[in-house]
Specification:
Elements lengths: L1 E4 L4 H5 L2 E10 L5 E7 L6 E4 L2 E3 L6 H13 L6 E14 L2 E13 L11 H7 L1 E7 L1 H6 L4 E2 L3 H13 L3
Parallel strand pairs: 1-6, 2-7, 4-9
Antiparallel strand pairs: 2-5, 3-4, 3-8, 6-7
């Protein structure tokens, strides 16, 4: 598992903490599903994996599965292993927070699978668009991808899956 942590500053120590579970969802062609947010600064426009904050009493995997279902309409995805932990400072709910994320690998058997009926949820949650990305597209895009090292994380996971074992 990769761990990426942005440097903690004195300001980060005073920020409210938020915990989030996210899913690196791959289709049979190893394309990854990303959601686009057109936020104001400091977040700005960015693409990120499906997921979101933990509810009270919820653990990271449960939040990741719940959020994936809410954002895609799919309830048949089995969560795999944790592949990334990271922390970042971001805006959420009108204030800066220090977010701790855990990202889990999952797969769908459906190439380029379309989302279910989630348009109202996307509007309420600020999801402006979604799409499946190839690794080459992640490497060459000028779009902001969260986390920036997502293509490398996926390559590492794919290499581990293909290693004799």
């Amino acid at each position: 598992m990769l761990g990426v942590a942005e440097p903690d500053t004195a300001q980060d120590a005073r920020l409210p903490e938020r915990h989030a579970g996210r899913v690196i969802l791959l289709d049979p062609g190893d394309r990854v599903l990303l959601m686009r947010y057109d936020d104001s600064l400091p977040n700005g426009r960015h693409w990120t994996t499906p997921g979101g904050g933990l509810n009270p009493g919820e653990d990271y995997p449960a939040a990741a599965v719940r959020e994936l279902a809410e954002e895609t309409g799919w309830t048949d995805i089995t969560l795999g292993r944790e592949v990334l932990q990271r922390s970042l400072t971001m805006e959420y709910g009108g204030r800066l927070v220090h977010q701790h994320e855990r990202q889990y690998l999952a797969r769908t058997d459906h190439p380029g699978r379309p989302l279910g009926d989630v348009a109202q949820m996307h509007a309420a949650d600020g999801i402006a668009a979604w799409r499946w990305w190839t690794l080459a597209e992640l490497d060459s895009t000028s779009e902001v991808i969260w986390p920036a090292e997502l293509a490398d994380v996926i390559r590492k996971v794919l290499g581990e899956e293909q290693a004799p074992g």
